[in-house]
Amino acid sequence: MSASIIEKRIAFYGAGSIAEALVRGLLAKQKAWPGNLSLLNRGGKSERLQNLRTTYGVRVSGNPESKQRFVQEADLIVLAVKPVDCETALLELKPLLNENQMIVSVVAGLTIETIEGILEMSMPVVRTMPNTSSTIGFGATGIAFSERVTDHQQQTALEMFESIGTVTVVEESLLNVVTGVSGSGPAYVYFLMEQLTAAGVQGGMDEETARTLTVQTFLGAAQMVQLTGEDPADLRRKVTSPNGTTQAALDVLAEYRFAEGFNRAVLRASERAAEMGATIGRK
Ligand SMILES: NC(=O)C1=CN([C@@H]2O[C@H](COP(=O)(O)OP(=O)(O)OC[C@H]3O[C@@H](n4cnc5c(N)ncnc54)[C@H](O)[C@@H]3O)[C@@H](O)[C@H]2O)C=CC1
Ligand SMILES: O=C(O)[C@@H]1CCC=N1
């Protein structure tokens, strides 16, 4: 059997933000045919599903019968519902699955053991933590495989996520930390961008000018790290003239214990992933 992702039929169980990000990324990179992708949601003819069909040309369904058919026909089932909806979703999937298919979960905190426990069958399970930048091919995904995943299936899953960004294979126990760092990470970056723009506006700039300067600053800084290979701490020191403006700003951040707060925030996200995961299947 071919490992190539383009030949696979993929059913996304849950048609929310991350499912759309993955679909858009795969289609943009021509790693999937729209006719091989189905986006399945709860509820009948929702406006969201119709929009997804119109925008991407994919198959969509919120109707239990056609949802079942799309799942049964699929090679890969991407579980993309909120943690709170996982148990119900897995119980709906259970009678429809066979061992030649592969489950690819993107759910924060949900362990391979919990998935296997709810399904009560030995399916190949891939646990991942992508992020929404996958939409534009700049995703960062952490990935771990259950013992049942064959080498071929690993290649298929890796190809899927490599086509929309970088992929890092990790021990499953690290995936909650991956969630804190890169799964939730884009939100921290957007938050910083919001603050930088707002400060520019407060200083007297118009919104557009502040936003243009902010976006280019983030793009430039990320590219500097990637293209020079230099340590961010060294690059930071090069911006920071002794007793200059940057030092003055960093002193204020230290006064507000920004580093400590930020570190706590990321670790709290990881903890939260574990907490959410622990509630699944314990009803
Ligand atoms: N949004 C993000 O940046 C990321 C999210 N994730 C994970 O992806 C999962 C989904 O997150 P989002 O896309 O943000 O959520 P979302 O709320 O946008 O989408 C979830 C979708 O699942 C549907 N759904 C719920 N129960 C269902 C069922 N039984 N059958 C079919 N569809 C059902 C809902 O109607 C909703 O459209 C979460 O578990 C989250 O941890 C992972 C990485 C990044
Ligand atoms: O906020 C959340 O729970 C999800 C997981 C990673 C990003 N969004």
TrEMBL record:
Residues 172-276 form the Pyrroline-5-carboxylate reductase dimerisation domain. Pathway: Amino-acid biosynthesis; L-proline biosynthesis; L-proline from L-glutamate 5-semialdehyde: step 1/1. It is an enzyme of class 1 (oxidoreductase). One of its GO terms (molecular function) is pyrroline-5-carboxylate reductase activity. Pfam families: F420_oxidored, P5CR_dimer. Residues 9-109 form the Pyrroline-5-carboxylate reductase catalytic N-terminal domain. GO terms for biological process: L-proline biosynthetic process. It is found in: Cytoplasm. The keyword Protease does not apply. InterPro entries: 6-PGluconate_DH-like_C_sf (IPR008927), NAD(P)-bd_dom_sf (IPR036291), P5C_Rdtase_cat_N (IPR028939), P5CR_dimer (IPR029036), Pyrroline-COOH_reductase (IPR000304). NADP(+) binds at A80, V81, K82, P83. Keywords: Amino-acid biosynthesis, Cytoplasm, NADP, Oxidoreductase, Proline biosynthesis. GO terms for cellular component: cytoplasm. The keyword Transport does not apply. It catalyses: L-proline + NADP(+) = (S)-1-pyrroline-5-carboxylate + NADPH + 2 H(+); L-proline + NAD(+) = (S)-1-pyrroline-5-carboxylate + NADH + 2 H(+). Its main location: cytoplasm. Its EC number is 1.5.1.2. Catalyzes the reduction of 1-pyrroline-5-carboxylate (PCA) to L-proline. HAMAP family: P5C_reductase. Belongs to the pyrroline-5-carboxylate reductase family. This is Pyrroline-5-carboxylate reductase. It comes from Paenibacillus swuensis.
